[in-house]
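Model it.
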Amino acid sequence: MTIDGNTAARAEAPCEVSGVRPGIDGTYRIDTVTHTYKRQGGFISELTLKQPSGDAGTDSRAGAAS
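Modeled.
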């Protein structure tokens, strides 16, 4: 996932994903982070996520495939 630059994004830190959809939203552990500076200023952080916890990775909607 790609987010606006965030220096708190570090490997093994938790990452809360929300507003995507049921079955995706939830807490994950960050596997890797790459920070990239943009020419027009600021930076972005690219995260690779692993280990969903809680309800992350499950979809409780009726008829949804898990």
